[in-house]
Prior knowledge:
alpha/beta; nine-stranded mixed beta sheet; two-stranded antiparallel sheet; 7 helices; 11 strands; globular; STEAP_metalloreductase
Amino acid sequence: MSYAIIGLGRIGTAIAQAFADQGIEVAVAGRRPVDALAARIGPSLVPQRIEDAIEADVVILAVPFGAHEDVARAAESWQGKIVIDAMNAYGVPVKELDGLPSSAAVAKAFPGAKLVKAFNHLPAATLAQGPTTPHGGRRVVFVASDDEPASASVAALVDRLGFAPVDLGKIGEGGLLVQARGNTWAQLVFQDLVKFD
C-alpha cells in the first residue's frame, strides 16, 4: 500500500516524522515546496507535487480545512482511495458544513473515496512527541469512519506507526467525539490518552 501526506505544517510534519521513525516510505507534498523539510525529517519521505502524491492508495489530508477542496480537485477520481482527514474545522460555521460533522462535509468533496478521521485530536506538539510516552505505553490515536474496512486499514497503519488505535465507529456517531463544530471542540479533542499493552 502506498501513502501520501498532503500538507507539511505542524500536524503533517508530526505525522511525517512518525513515518520516518518507522522507515515507511511516504510521498509528501504541499502548497509550497517541501523538499528541504522532507530531507531534514528522513530519507523515507519522497517530495512530490500534489498531483503526483494523490496517486497514493492512502492520502492523509493535513492542510488547513479551507484548502481541502483544492486538494480534491487535483485528482480526476478518488474512487477506492482511503482519505484520512487529519484536519480540524474549528471556527468554520456549522451552516457552511450543511450541519454535518466536518469529516462528512469533507467526504462530499472526495466522491468515491473512503474517508477516515484520524490524527486530528492531538495538538501538533503532542503528536510530534511520538507514539511512546515518558511513562511507557502508547499514545492513543482515534479512528472513525463510515467504512469499516477502511477504518481497519487506517487502524493498522496507526499501529504500524507505533500509536495505539482506538476505533470510535462511524463519523456521525462516535466520530463526533473528535470533531470541531463552529467554535466548540468535541470531548476527546486534546485528550492525550495512553494505552498500556
